[in-house]
Amino acid sequence: MNPASPEPRPSRPSRPDPLDPKDRPARLSVGVVGAGRVGPALAASLQLAGHRPVAVSGVSDASVRRAGALLPDVPLVPPAEVLARAELVLLTVPDDALPGLVEGFADTGAVRPGQLVVHTSGRHGTRVLDPLLRAGALPLALHPAMTFTGTAVDVQRLAGCSFGVTAPDELRLAAEALVIEMGGEPEWIAEEMRPLYHAALALGANHLVTLVAESMELLRAAGVGAPDRMLGPLLGAALDNALRSGDAALTGPVARGDAGTVAAHVTELRKHAPATVAGYLAMARATADRALAHGLLKPELAEDLLDVLAHGAEETR
To answer: Scanning 87, 177, 192, 207, which has its CA 20 to 30 A from the CA of 296?
Structure first.
């Protein structure tokens, strides 16, 4: 089946179930390799759906604490032992560590035929699991489009969270069912589109944290006592408007073509926070380009604005 035409979704199970998890029949034993912020939360969510976490691996003190908090009474064992105990294995390690981990499991024969192996990397599809596929594993790529804290709040945030899903055709329904059981919404991503998909999420979420943190620092320097309280309503409205209207939501001095105001910003940033100037100029130029392309920035005002940005970038270099 073409990935662009997914099969009808199975009906969503009720969450939370009124039965205690211990009283429900477990369908799959679940193991976690890599007790970072993601793995224990996903395993805890699968436990709510009736599956049974049986083993978790973690090295650092922080990972051991997370596993103990989110998966109490689940034994902490070496990675190979996780694979030996579990029917469904979650590989929740950093993107760059995943290929080496998979090769290691393949070389040691740790995977059993018919074992579901799920990784949560945004960058990779299922091709990275090919060494395990040759050993009979069933490969799935399920990436939650969510930022994780490593606490129980992550399990609640999975409700309605989109997952970037890549899977062989014969495992599409299984992948979709697992995501829905965790409370998520599957979004199918073609293998070759995984890096672009992941770049889009990093651009939106990771860079947003940097921008907000820098904005709060600047507000404190300007004498604002509660920058978080000041930014909360503003950023919430800006995000809502952007999600609803896209580029039509652009406001501020760049979209208006206020070259003098932008020049004043650059001068003050150089004086008080020179490390932020390059980022300000780059984002202002990107904003100007989008505002011009969508008819929001008048061409007769754009010339002076672009001159200011170009001069600022030259000074920064």
So the answer is: 207
Contact 290, 247 (CB under 8 A): yes
Extract the tokens encoding 225.
């006592």
β-bridge mates for residue 56, sequence order: 32, 76
In the sheet that 162-166 helps form, which strands lie side by side, from edge to edge? Answer: 52-57, 29-33, 88-91, 116-119, 138-144, 162-166, 185-188
Helices assigned H by DSSP within the chain: 39-48, 61-70, 79-85, 98-108, 130-133, 153-157, 172-181, 194-201, 207-221, 227-245, 253-256, 259-272, 277-293, 299-316
Give the phi and the psi of residue 155 in degrees, each rounded to 5.
Answer: -65, -40
Question: What pLDDT score was predicted for residue 154?
Answer: 95
Residue 215 CA to chain centroid, in angstroms?
A: 22
Least Cα distance to 103 among 77, 132, 125 occurs for 132
pTM: 0.85
Q: Is the Cα dihedral 190, 193, 199, 200 positive or negative?
A: negative
Q: What gap in Å lies between CA 41 and CA 155, rounded to an integer?
A: 6
Which residue(s) pair with 216 in the sheet? none
* Beta-strand pair 88-91/29-33: parallel
At 301, list the tokens. Answer: 């005002």
Contact in structure between 194 and 125 (CB atoms under 8 Å): yes
Tens digits of per-residue pLDDT, 132-186?
Answer: 999 999 999 999 999 999 999 999 999 999 999 999 999 999 999 999 999 999 9
Structure tokens at 34: 């890599």
Under 8 Å between Cβ of 219 and 230: yes
